[in-house]
Structure formats: structure tokens, C-alpha cells
Amino acid sequence: MLKKNVLRRKSDFTSIYNRGKSVGDRYVVVFYRKNNLPYTRKAFLASKKVGNSVKRNRARRLMKESFRLTDFKIPEGYDLIFIARNTIVNAKCQDVKKSLESALKRTGVTKKA
């Protein structure tokens, strides 16, 4: 992921949470909003409810890898926040990928690659 493609500022997160839409699935919740930029920004989060730092980092790695492996094309100009649910702790990468694809499909912002 390029540096410009990562959400970092608190104001960006707040605006997505307040004015964006969300879709949940078994392992992942996706918040999304149009950003009117020529690129799409992403963030992968795991709260302390997921577990200790090892489990949180694994959850983030699973989501990033699942997103990388998805065969969906996200059009430019969106902000996406992927939040891990605590059920992700014992999940396999393939299960997380299916959950993430299902959530992305329901957002309506994806196109099949």
C-alpha cells in the first residue's frame, strides 16, 4: 500500500464514521465514503476487544492479505475503513477473504476485475 493510500488523520476517520455508510459481515465491518480524490484510501483497524497486540496484528494482517487477494476492483475516490470483529481471532485467511468480499459486494462500490 502506498503512503498516500492510507487513512491517517483523525478528521478523516471522524467524517467517515459520521457521514459514511457501513456494512458488516461475520469477521469484518466496512465503513465507506466517497472522498472526491483521484485515489482510494484505506485503513485496517482492530480494537482492543479483538485481543492482545499479537491477535490484533494478526487480524490486521489477515484483512490486508484478504483485501490484496480479492478479485474486486475498487474505483478511485473512496475512503474505506476495515474493522476486525473479535470473531476474527480463530479465523483462517480464506474465511476472512470470503467475509471481506461479501461485505465489499454489499457496499456497492466494487466492480468485478
Automatic annotation (TrEMBL):
Query: What GO molecular functions are on record for this protein?
Result: 3'-tRNA processing endoribonuclease activity; ribonuclease P activity; tRNA binding
**EC number(s) per entry:** 3.1.26.5
Keyword tRNA processing attributed = yes
Q: What class of enzyme is it?
A: hydrolase
The UniProt entry, under InterPro entries, shows: Ribosomal_Su5_D2-typ_SF, Ribsml_uS5_D2-typ_fold_subgr, RNase_P
Matches recorded under SUPFAM superfamilies: Ribosomal protein S5 domain 2-like
One GO cellular component term noted in the UniProt record for this chain: ribonuclease P complex
Enumerate the UniProt keywords alphabetically: Endonuclease, Hydrolase, Nuclease, RNA-binding, tRNA processing
State whether keyword Lipoprotein applies: no
| One of the protein's GO biological processes | tRNA 5'-leader removal
Reactions mediated catalytically: Endonucleolytic cleavage of RNA, removing 5'-extranucleotides from tRNA precursor
Q: What does this protein do?
A: RNaseP catalyzes the removal of the 5'-leader sequence from pre-tRNA to produce the mature 5'-terminus. It can also cleave other RNA substrates such as 4.5S RNA. The protein component plays an auxiliary but essential role in vivo by binding to the 5'-leader sequence and broadening the substrate specificity of the ribozyme.
| Assembly description | Consists of a catalytic RNA component (M1 or rnpB) and a protein subunit.
Q: Which family does it belong to?
A: Belongs to the RnpA family.
Protein name (database record): Ribonuclease P protein component
